[in-house]
Automatic annotation (TrEMBL):
<protein>
    <recommendedName>
        <fullName>4-hydroxy-3-methylbut-2-en-1-yl diphosphate synthase (flavodoxin)</fullName>
        <ecNumber>1.17.7.3</ecNumber>
    </recommendedName>
</protein>
<dbReference type="GO" id="GO:0046429">
    <property type="term" value="F:4-hydroxy-3-methylbut-2-en-1-yl diphosphate synthase activity (ferredoxin)"/>
</dbReference>
<keyword id="KW-0411">Iron-sulfur</keyword>
<dbReference type="InterPro" id="IPR004588">
    <property type="entry name" value="IspG_bac-typ"/>
</dbReference>
<comment type="similarity">
    <text>Belongs to the IspG family.</text>
</comment>
<keyword id="KW-0408">Iron</keyword>
<feature type="binding site">
    <location>
        <position position="347"/>
    </location>
    <ligand>
        <name>[4Fe-4S] cluster</name>
    </ligand>
</feature>
<keyword id="KW-0004">4Fe-4S</keyword>
<dbReference type="InterPro" id="IPR045854">
    <property type="entry name" value="NO2/SO3_Rdtase_4Fe4S_sf"/>
</dbReference>
<feature type="domain" description="IspG C-terminal">
    <location>
        <begin position="298"/>
        <end position="399"/>
    </location>
</feature>
<dbReference type="GO" id="GO:0051539">
    <property type="term" value="F:4 iron, 4 sulfur cluster binding"/>
</dbReference>
<feature type="binding site">
    <location>
        <position position="301"/>
    </location>
    <ligand>
        <name>[4Fe-4S] cluster</name>
    </ligand>
</feature>
<comment type="function">
    <text>Converts 2C-methyl-D-erythritol 2,4-cyclodiphosphate (ME-2,4cPP) into 1-hydroxy-2-methyl-2-(E)-butenyl 4-diphosphate.</text>
</comment>
<dbReference type="InterPro" id="IPR011005">
    <property type="entry name" value="Dihydropteroate_synth-like_sf"/>
</dbReference>
<dbReference type="Pfam" id="PF26540">
    <property type="entry name" value="GcpE_C"/>
</dbReference>
<feature type="binding site">
    <location>
        <position position="354"/>
    </location>
    <ligand>
        <name>[4Fe-4S] cluster</name>
    </ligand>
</feature>
<dbReference type="InterPro" id="IPR016425">
    <property type="entry name" value="IspG_bac"/>
</dbReference>
């Protein structure tokens, strides 16, 4: 991505997670997580499939008890039967060592395990339980994400650093020490894991915070101190626009600095909302930054007094929906189509110029303008649409363009 001004990807060791590579030269990976009861293997498999079809390249599932652990291999089998090869990530807290020992088939069915140093065990049990789960990962050849979360931070470590800070001639603010503790917890845990025998290239780190500036500070520190792949995500981001804006603000800063190898947008779903929204948001962050392409994006003007008709808004929404609906087929048949750009503009002020900049653009008439809609393809005006069938005609133009530009030739096939 050398064409992006100021962008230079931080080096990280590549880690294989099933058929996906995280870190190294691999593109930033999109991850998501189910919110079904893992014991309900049918609903969980269906949601994993939905997330994978939406573009999630890793899907994490909760493994919180023995029934859930026993369901994991069956979920994997159901996904395989559906032709869904997305790697599963097992989310373990408190009792992961016991579950993986009792149900080894669970560990084998997972592409990666996630553990939290803050709750892998307390007091004298912490090191033995951490050691046990790392030994199991080593023996099963499974990578591990060491996922620190400031809401469940190792309190013994935090107390130790707070005590050390209190003895300093100029103590740091408590919030700074907390951020330091999150980073130290992840790095010390990774060091212990390697000492136990887990390979360096089988470790991914995350340090989840819920405030934007805290997350940026922690990952800047972490990125400068290690070459492990880093999983980015704002924990408890929130619902709706708040969660989207907060996640975008935090991750965009870090990604622009080349920090981050896999991301998840932890949105609280609206009641009855679609879980796949977090996948779409993650993709759109990466695509609007120019880091990856997933689906053609539609540029559209916001509207003003010149666009009292809502037709351009309706057409923009219809075209964006059409593109997303067609992508599962397009992706297989038309390599490169995900980078196509479209524009649906609402008046003569910026409409022709924006439309020329897109691969395909249409400039609809504004208030008082002549009721015609010129269409531009590769910067050239090609046809003018009018009447009641503009939407269908424009979609046909898009379909023809996709086949002509991205279709495989006989020799390619």
């Amino acid at each position: 991505m050398n064409e992006i001004p100021g962008y230079h990807r931080r080096y990280s060791v590549p880690v294989k997670v099933g058929n996906v590579t995280v870190g190294g030269d691999a593109p930033v990976v999109v991850q998501s997580m189910t919110n079904t009861d893992t014991v309900d293997e049918i609903r969980t498999a269906i949601q994993v499939a939905d997330l994978a079809r939406a573009g999630s390249e890793l899907v994490r599932i909760t493994v919180n008890n023995e029934d859930a652990a026993r369901a994991v291999p069956r979920i994997r089998e159901r996904l395989d039967d559906m032709g869904i090869d997305v790697p599963l990530v097992g989310d373990f807290h408190f009792n992961g060592h016991r579950l993986l020992r009792a149900v080894p088939a669970c560990g084998e069915a997972l592409g990666k395990w996630r553990i939290n140093p803050g709750n892998v065990g307390k007091g004298s049990r912490r090191d033995p339980q951490f050691t046990e789960i790392i030994e199991l990962a080593r023996d099963m050849n499974r990578p591990v994400r060491i996922g620190v979360n400031w809401g469940s931070l190792d309190q013994d470590l935090l107390s130790r650093l707070m005590d050390e800070n209190a003895r300093r001639a100029e103590p740091k603010p408590p919030e700074t020490v907390t951020r330091d503790a999150v980073v130290v917890s992840s790095l010390e845990s990774a060091e212990r894991a390697e000492a136990i025998g887990l390979p360096h290239d089988a470790i991914i780190i995350s340090c989840k915070m819920s405030r934007v500036q805290d997350l940026i500070s922690v990952y800047q520190d972490l990125g400068a101190r290690c070459d492990y792949p880093l999983h980015l995500g704002l924990t408890e981001a929130g619902m709706g626009s708040k969660g989207i804006v907060a996640s975008t603000a935090a991750l965009s800063v870090l990604l622009q600095q080349g920090i981050g190898d896999t991301i998840r947008i932890s949105l609280t779903p609206e009641p009855g909302g679609d879980r796949t929204q977090e996948v779409v948001v993650a993709q759109e962050i990466l695509q609007t930054m120019g880091l990856r392409s997933f689906t053609p994006l539609v540029a559209a003007c916001p509207g003003c007094g010149r666009t009292t008709s809502t037709y351009f808004q309706e057409l923009a929404d219809e075209i964006q929906t059409h593109v997303r609906d067609r992508m599962p087929e397009w992706r297989d048949r038309y390599p490169g189509v995900e980078s196509m750009s479209l524009a649906v503009m609402g008046c003569v002020v910026n409409g022709p110029g924006e439309s020329r900049q897109a691969d395909i653009g249409i400039s609809l008439p504004g208030t008082g303008e002549k009721p015609v809609a010129p269409v531009y393809i590769d910067g050239e005006k090609t046809v003018t649409l009018k009447g009641d069938a503009i939407a269908d005609e424009f979609k046909k133009i898009v379909e023809d363009y996709v086949e002509r530009r991205y279709g495989l030739t006989t020799e390619d096939r």
